[in-house]
Task: inverse folding
């Protein structure tokens, strides 16, 4: 018997502001998807403390013990001209809410390519939220008329490599880092008009 998960085990409700949706998981858990806010630094710090060492290593490529206030504020400050970051956050007052997932991308200086990074905390992993978030980053990259969206992934990170493959990313070896694979999605006229694969 197949143990494959259902494709969309959550519901989405558009909240009337760009990129903002109410998400309800099959488990009944509710989250808000919204762009990162510059005030999210302290929430990012508290949420980071819940991550496992392995999740941190997969996301940041090296061990980090804690987010310093400066680094958290830097991650929360988004330059709308060249950056995008979407969070999944609990619908609670800011001092109580935790951010369960973040997907971000930044356009490299003087190029039309952006690097993305994503993390979905283990409590809400496996529901299709990684796929949802990365699909939205692809949507942002298309709207920005970028030439390429790419991510650096450790070569033993099978969940991320699987997710990227499902969404149509190609793979290439990293020129600089032995253990890293780059997953990339080129956007050209043909792919521009192609729909984002269903989430
Ligand atoms: C990779 C990650 C974002 C996946 O998030 P997620 O919400 O669990 O993923 P989804 O539930 O949306 O799964 C989407 C696809 O990913 C792949 N996938 C997810 N978990 C997987 C696993 N444990 N093993 C293999 N493939 C997996 C599958 O292809 C899946 O598609 P399917 O459900 O149609 O089979 C999450 O595991 C994570 O944050 N890992 C730590 C940080 C990290 O690795 N970041 C990447 C650096 S860029």
Result:
């Amino acid at each position: 018997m197949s143990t494959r998960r259902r494709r969309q085990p959550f519901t989405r409700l558009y909240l009337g502001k760009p990129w903002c949706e109410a998400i309800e998981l099959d488990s009944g858990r509710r989250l808000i998807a919204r762009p990162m806010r510059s005030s999210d630094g302290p929430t990012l710090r508290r949420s980071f403390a819940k991550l496992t060492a392995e999740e941190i290593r997969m996301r940041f490529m090296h061990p980090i013990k804690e987010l310093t206030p400066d680094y958290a504020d830097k991650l929360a400050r988004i330059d709308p001209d060249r950056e995008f970051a979407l969070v999944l956050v609990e619908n609670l007052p800011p001092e109580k809410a935790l951010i369960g997932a973040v997907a971000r991308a930044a356009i490299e200086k003087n190029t039309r390519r952006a690097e993305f990074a994503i993390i979905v905390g283990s409590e809400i992993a496996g529901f299709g939220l990684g796929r949802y978030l990365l699909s939205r980053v692809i949507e942002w990259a298309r709207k920005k008329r970028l030439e390429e969206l790419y991510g650096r992934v450790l070569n033993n990170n099978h969940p991320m490599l699987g997710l990227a493959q499902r969404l149509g990313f190609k793979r290439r070896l990293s020129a600089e880092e032995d253990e890293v694979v780059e997953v990339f999605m080129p956007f050209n006229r043909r792919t521009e008009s192609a729909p984002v694969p269903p989430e």
User: Anything to note?
Assistant: Helices lie at 41-48, 53-60, 69-76, 129-143, 158-166, 189-193.
